[in-house]
């Protein structure tokens, strides 16, 4: 097994090479050409696929999830069809793109209601299961910690211009740059109540913004006071709040998906909430 680390292989040709089960992390494939390749079982996470063109491909089974602006399949842009179907399945989804203060207040209140149900499901699991990753995705606790980071970044750091809005439990996205002073503890295992307490504080901060929000306030131009999004331009309060809404909406769906996996698997002795309660008694 060969290890290629910190090497420039740009312009290389791989002909009749077996790369099965290889791992590509922080790899640049810009402008690469893939011809007559077997990509069965390929998994791409946190990829950027702008301008990708595939022709003559066989796709018997493929799943795509993410922020998709345009996706043409056999000459048909399927994104509007997918968006319409998602809104039909989840009517609350249409509320996540508000344009006025009342709409933003309704959107966050809707998320409060939906997340309350999700948290109720999480409480039915053993505490250790809330730290368990499903299919290498974030655990439920990590998901809540990341949402805390999103609130701190976009509301605290941009809308409120706080240069240090972080909490020790905040969790940036996996590929985020390491920035001095920004917490990034992958090993800490806080309880659900601990992360929910931080979450309540962050929600109160957002509510403070919403309570005083006006149409003019939504259009107010803002810049980041932290190292994150410092180079972003054309930001206004409305855009920042929509980012948080999107993060909250999407990560709740991920959480619901993974909680269902944890709840549906065969119950093992010593792995149930009742067993956990008896151990702590």
Automatic annotation (TrEMBL):
Gene3D superfamilies assigned: dinb family like domain, E3 ubiquitin-protein ligase SopA
One of the Pfam families matching this protein, by short name: Pentapeptide
Alphabetized SUPFAM superfamilies for the sequence: DinB/YfiT-like putative metalloenzymes, Pentapeptide repeat-like
InterPro entries to which the protein is assigned, alphabetical: 5peptide_repeat (IPR001646), DinB-like (IPR024775), DinB/YfiT-like (IPR034660)
Ranges in a coiled coil: none
Domain DinB-like per the UniProt entry, residue ranges: 111-253
This protein's name: DinB-like domain-containing protein
Organism of this sequence: Nocardioides cavernae
